[in-house]
């Protein structure tokens, strides 16, 4: 039994987790990927939560111990009998037998909230869009796909804020990469879909050498890609920014340099399907159709493949 590579994608409700997850699964080949959403580990259904006055974001509202057990089983390549929570009905359905594929992507609200859970991942991503943009995405998704009115969504966001602050946002510190899509102009929610991306790269995993990559671009990349050194939650980190107005040529250049030592990733770039990968829209993120998204997906995939080389 071989052990899968496990990627975590954690972030608040409607932060773009599903969009990113689907894009990465598409790159790796859906047949090689097991997708798990930790919403399935909710302890109470929608009616019970309303009665108890507890939000889905609270650790007590989730079977984190069982989630943790399942992560450890998946980590060693073993199957799980996963609970199923339906966002349509707000109740639970029959559990599902899941055998991990070569890659496992675990997305959800509280994936990094315990030490044992954190230990299960090879790569940990945290999604942190500006709160204003997240609210726009949440209203859009929950009205279009989950049958809520805009007023209900806004009210719910307000009700959940204390739990977001206490339980969701602190998990940022445990991630290897923080991904923030943001509008170039602060006062806009979106700018015709041309969002920039800011990637915080912590030195907890080996990243591609972006200094070298930008230099190898011979001046062609500077107008759309920047690398800096800042502090995030008190710790020094590299920050890579890619503008929404990056061109296909610039993105291809970065991809080719980045993938030069990774034959599998290179073969993906050579097929030149990356612009399309940026267009994989999930339930939240139709607005994420962009090269920054395509590049973000590729960088995370790079890490998963690197983990295969390093740890297997
Ligand atoms: C948000 C979160 C989900 C969570 C859900 C529960 O939408 O993004 O992860 O499962 O809240 O609330 P619900 O709308 O299903 O009652």
What is the N-to-C order of secondary-structure elements (H for helix, E for strand)?
A: EHEHHEEEHEHHEEHEEHHHH
In the predicted model, the low-confidence regions spanning at least 5 consecutive residues are: 272-288
Number of strands: 10
DSSP strand (E) fraction?
Answer: 15-25%
**Proportion in helices:** 25-40%
Number of domains: 2
How is the biggest beta sheet arranged?
A: 8 strands, mixed
Average pLDDT for all residues = 88
The hetero compounds bound to this protein are: 6-O-phosphono-alpha-D-glucopyranose
Classify the oligomer. Answer: single chain
Label the structural class: alpha/beta
Q: Which value, in Å, is the CA radius of gyration?
A: 19 Å
User: Given the structure, what is the number of helices?
Assistant: 11
Sum up the overall morphology in one term.
Answer: globular
Please report the distance between the alpha carbons of the first and last residues: 12 Å
Tell me what the structure shows.
The chain has helices at 17-28, 46-52, 64-75, 115-118, 131-144, 150-168, 210-216, 248-258, 263-270, 274-277, 291-311; strands at residues 5-11, 33-37, 80-85, 92-98, 103-108, 123-127, 177-182, 196-201, 225-232, 235-242. With 312 residues, it is α/β, with parallel strands linked by helices. It folds into 2 domains: 1-124, Rossmann fold, CATH 3.40.50.300; 176-312, no CATH class. Helix 1 packs across helix 11, helix 5 (131-144) packs across helix 6 (150-168) and helix 8 (248-258) runs parallel beside helix 11. It binds 6-O-phosphono-alpha-D-glucopyranose. 6-O-phosphono-alpha-D-glucopyranose is lined by residues 13, 39, 46, 56, 87, 90, 109, 146.
